[in-house]
User: What shape does this take?
Amino acid sequence: MKKMKPVRFWKFAYALTLLALFAHALYEYPPAAAHFADMWSGGARLSPFDSRLHKPAVVYAIEKSGSELKVRVLRTYVQPAIQDMAIRLTVFNSDGSASVYVFKQRAPPGYLTEYTVHAPLAVSLRVEIEVNGAREVEERWLGGS
Amino acid sequence: MAGRLLKPKRLDLDRLLELASLTSLGTSLLLAWTYALYRIGLSCPSWDCGHTVRAIVLPLGYWGVLLWALLLFAPLVAARELPWLAAPALALVLTLLFADPLPLALLSVLLLFPFGTKKFLRAVPAGVIAVELAVLAGFAARAYSLRLPLPPALPVHLALYCFLVPATPALAFLACLSPLLVPLAPKGVKLSAPLRGRASLAFGLFASFLMWSIVYASALNPGSKLVGVDAVTRYYPHALEFLEGGLPSVLKVGYDRPLHYLFLYGLAKALGPYDAVRVLALTPLLLYTLASYLLARELWGGRVAGLAAAIAPLTYTATAGLFGGLYGNWTALALALLACTAAIRWLRRGGAARLLLYLLLLAAVAGVHVYMGAVAFAVLSLFLLLAAARKGYRRRALAALALQVVVAAVGLYAAERYLSSLGARGPFSVTALNVNLWLKRAASTRLFSEEWWYDFCFAVYRYAPSTALDPSVWLLTTLAAAVLGFKDLGGLLLAPWMILTALLTFTAPSSLIYRSLLDFPYSLAEAVGLAYLTAFIEERLGGGNAKLWAVALLLFKLSFALAFAVGLAS
Assistant: This one.
């Protein structure tokens, strides 16, 4: 049976100690980093064949959770320059009323942004996106009563 | 005769075809990688007129998938891989049938079988070069209002590093602890830079100027508004104050950076306060590039020095420096590198002039930025102590150390007396105040707890918004610190420097963590890391591949840094 050289043994012991130190140091890292997860978890996807990806901006996802309505908008990569983007959300409620929300911002290519509005009675939604004069309108039925 | 004349042309054509085939294979591989990240639903944070989360999407369309199939077809034709020739067409049909590019992505990876791993390892950097050139052309179009028909290559560039974004704080942390890896690093490290030193230096100086011109002389910033936190909140109002109050106000306001403020005062007198601050941003960019070159040349020769110069304007120091407007720290860091160069020349060759130059430069570092002066003093003291333990350097190292302690003591005493007489705060009180603040924070810190990690993550993701997200900074630095160890003078300098930076970073208040990370000269460590990596590639895959990888990495870093500069100026 081959004997382990002393240098190799110390190297191995040192590597194990170091591994334990790193494991101890990094143990609390994942829960702390999870606070920033919205930076890298884009979530929903569009088909690469979706022709809307060749328009200035598209509705990426719409999600209704409880009384909150979340609308994710993607400013596509079509134009390389930063552009002015205006979003107009019209929420149609089950009681026949409608609420309008307007957001304006500068949007660089690839920009993924989320707008959250309080809309407990929302049944349908119209999203109007205007990027440097070009206008896109999308309407979605949200279900419910 | 005719044959001789024709032969080189034929060879060139063959090489060109080979390069085109590699590029097309590499690009299709990168498309497959981007597609994989898109399937996972990853996005990438960046800075573009504010914090921006970018979606990783492949806007392929029908023309896009056709192009992808052609990219796969071209290398198969060039390599005369007849049994595989129908595969791209089949993958294209399946892609159109399922309205999903998965078949094309799978085929990109499956081509590993006919081409082999070696060709793949050559194709990847060729693809990266093609993608990054397209990305750079896109930034040029945006910065200088050019109308160019360009493919949307930015998502592919983002896909190269966004998968490491969740781990970036951990990578930065690992880089801080890299001196601990020294005993595990391989012995007999060889450094080899495949690019010519002078050419890389020219690239570095050009990139430095480009970074500055994107921020201050491009269509993105037509009014040349001031960019960077300190540029707006510190340097411009102080420059106005100096013009009103004259020289005494320079020392009163700039007690923690008197020489830097004297320089600003001179610039403001000559150019006006607005242009003075803009020129102030260019100074550290150029000086840091040049200083990185000179120190690396002294330590590891011209070729590694060229890499250091090429990396200097593209590393964390430059992006975070431009964002924070930390021109004082940055200029002082550049001067500290020059002081190190003088110190190493003194250790190797002697000469009173070199020793004097070293002491003067070290004093200048403290004069330009007191905090960086203290860091440089501590680093160089440790370096000289370690060098004194080596046979050839003992006498000169101890002489330099003794003299620098005397100069520092006399200088501090004189500065304290003079500044106090002017009613300004002296270096002792500034140091005492900072040390107290730091100690309070250090005492209340529970190292590696969730709160501590939250602060560290916040510093990496938010305080230094996206500037720290280039993973090559941390990976190459880790590699360099580990392989250099304490073997040569470069290792003796960088290892204690990293240990000190780590100590300061780990105990810093949350708002100062990203600034503490700036204390280290990443350009040098990254150059060594890259030189080690290219030596490794050269040994296994040949010199041509090493060159491809080096160019690909430099172009990636250029794209990352320019993307940040473009976003900063917008």
Summary: Chain A has two helices and seven strands. The two ends of chain A are 78 Å apart (CA to CA). Chain A touches chain B through 48 residues (CB under 8 Å). The mean pLDDT of chain A is 88.
